[in-house]
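Researcher: We're teaching a course module on how sequence relates to structure. For the next exercise, students receive a sequence and then see the predicted structure as tokens, so they can try to spot secondary structure elements on their own. Here is the exercise chain.
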Amino acid sequence: MRAIGFLAGFVLLAACGSVPANPASPASGVRYQADLTVLSDAGHGPQLCWEVQTSAPPQCAGPDIVGWDWSAVEHTEERGTRWGRYHVVGTWDGARLTLTEPPGPVDPDAERGEETDLRSSCTAPPGGWRPVDPAKATEKAMRAAIRRAERLDGHAATWLDQSYLDTVDGFDLDDPDSVERYGNDSKRLVLNLLFTGDPTRHEAAIRELWGGALCLGRAERSAAELAEATKRAEKEITDRVYVVTDGRAGRVEIGLWVATPERQREANRRYGEGVVVLRGLLQPVTG
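Model: And here is the predicted structure for the students to work with:
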């Protein structure tokens, strides 16, 4: 299920494409793999890219990839810039990837990516979700309720469950007219709010404004706690590639080119168990 319209308080994304001066090096000889863009231009040779600027030609920067041969792969070229997406395998010395086998095509499943599950964390009541006060089940009321929720003690996350769209005959996510007609029906969607502690303590305050379907859930960490952890991690983990603060999962996810178990243990020690989760863009080759 993909959200139509707006999604509040779920993720905060901040990307950093710089390569650190002295990143931690994994064990020698370990091979890593990934499906990524490789790009070279007048300013640099072939480099791995996590984010690509959609200019003409595109631009990106990342760690160098050693042993690359553009004549051996299909690619696009425009005004001296060459690029393409490939499955790459090689060894990592802490700053660059050295190919150990020819690049190949990307995994189609990986290209599609993962869709965020935005279904409600609450069980639907008998008869299904419906407004308790249709007069207050409007988009204006919903926005007001969200603003209030974000100011309440312990607020962690806000999102909309629009799974009712799965039952709408003729709905097409890729059709703007269909989205305009069926999407964001405030009388059918479910407003989901997470708070630390007992979430029902805030129900009366939310119901003063919102009469539509409502799910209140418990969170392990508040948005304020995660914001503080994010601020610290962004300052201290200088070789990060991206940062995502996920209020629903109660964690900060940080992307690194290589995330070793040792670095995850250090993150657990610094920020608390499971608060900051490191994800390697390059994954060890197994088997």
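Model: If you want an answer key for the exercise: Confidence is low (pLDDT under 50) at residues 1-24. Residues 23-112 form one domain.
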